[in-house]
Amino acid sequence: MTNTMSDRGARTMLLRDVALPVALYYVLRSFEVAALWALLVSAVPPALRAGYVLVRRRRIDPVSAFVLAVLVVNGAVALLSGDPRLLLVRSAWFGLLFGGLMLTSLVVGRRPFLFRVIRTMQPARAGELEEQWAADAAFREGWRSVTLWWGVGSVLLGCVVVLMAFTLPVDAVPFLDTVLTVGSLVLGVKFTRRRLGINRTVDA
């Protein structure tokens, strides 16, 4: 089976949406910018990216719309309250929502949520994936299995982030959140490849 996940694309996503905001936060903090404002500014790159995707596609993309909505609402609430810890939980919202969607799709959906996401991301292979889904029971079981593990892992990660945000020093949380997120993604991708028999690729 050819790879359904691009190594290069995954690295770009991690650098753009995870590493850049965290680096920006700590650079601002080194110049003694208040934690609240440093967190708000560090959320600008992901917000711009989500807005760009919505404008470029000229239609509502649910993932990008949700990311943008969370960033805007979370930022507004934090500004009104003056509490930077409310901004620290923004990544938890993504994990809790998508984890919940994955687990729910195993009960009420015709296709696992993760399968639908990959199919949407690779429209050129959508027909091939659907044919394999219809013909191969092991293929279907594999996708259900990885969706279950991604769902459980995402929910657990979201809960851990919330716990860290309200118990640890503010400046420690962005780094720890990044380490946990990247580590979870790497392990998740390795598990997915092994479970589905996906080969590595360098396609963009």
Question: Could you please describe the fold and organization of this structure?
Answer:
- This protein is an all-alpha fold and 204 residues long.
- The chain is 80% helix and 0% strand.
- It has ten helices and no strands.
- It has helices spanning 7-30, 35-42, 44-57, 62-81, 85-88, 90-108, 113-121, 126-135, 137-167, 173-196.
- The two termini are 17 Å apart.
- The model is unreliable at 1-5 and 200-204 (pLDDT under 50).
Question: TL;DR of this structure?
Answer:
By secondary structure, this protein is an all-alpha fold.
Helix content: over 70%
Chain-averaged pLDDT = 83
Rounded to the nearest angstrom, the radius of gyration is 18 Å
Class derived from helix and strand content: mainly alpha
Distance between the termini: 17 Å
**Silhouette:** elongated
- Give a quick account of the main beta sheet: strands, pairing sense, barrel closure: none
> β content, as a range?
under 5%
Helix count from the secondary structure assignment: 10
By DSSP, the count of extended strands is 0
- In the predicted model, the low-confidence regions spanning at least 5 consecutive residues are 1-5, 200-204
- SSE pattern, N- to C-terminal: HHHHHHHHHH
Helix-strand layout with pairing:
Layout: H1 7-30, H2 35-42, H3 44-57, H4 62-81, H5 85-88, H6 90-108, H7 113-121, H8 126-135, H9 137-167, H10 173-196
